[in-house]
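User: I'll paste a sequence; please echo it back and then give the predicted structure.

Assistant: Echoing your sequence first, then the prediction.
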Amino acid sequence: MIAEHTNNNRVSVRRLVEKHQKRLEKFGKVVFQMQPLPSGQKAKVYKLNEQQATLLITFLDNTDQVADFKTALVDEFFKMRDELTKRKINRIEEKPLRKTLTDAVKEWEHRTDWSYNHISNLLYKAVTGMNAKQLKKARNPKVKASLDVLTSEEQEQYKQLETRVIGYLLAQMTFDQIKAMLNGGTLQVAE
């Protein structure tokens, strides 16, 4: 990626990594993997962390394209750091809501053995269009909690919907009524 976005030869960038490997390793182990090229040959591709990538690009000549890439890279790293911080805060804020949701499901008169899973999947689907299993498969199969693969914006939306669902559960609405409300429907109240 660095070679591509700085208009440098991949081999030159690889040599730069090898030349400065000791310096780069001050920030963690320098790892690589062999990846196939369209020609059928294989290329050594280094996987650098934030500090290593930042240091490596400082070793490149400052052409306009390199300077633009350095600027964009720093901007992206800070955006990602902000995003991860927001996600951590949202998860901390969401924990008490999750407990309240669990308690509301336990007290729900329409509860079945699968109610908690159905309600959770309903929430995920309302936010992302996917249930928990689909979401994890699409974004990160290794993660334990599907909430951890939501963006900070999706987490905010999830918390808002979760609060509404808790109210619906406490009002003893049926699953179909809750689903309709989350999908923008309305309730008909019999007189």
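The longest helix spans residues 64-107. The mean pLDDT is 88.
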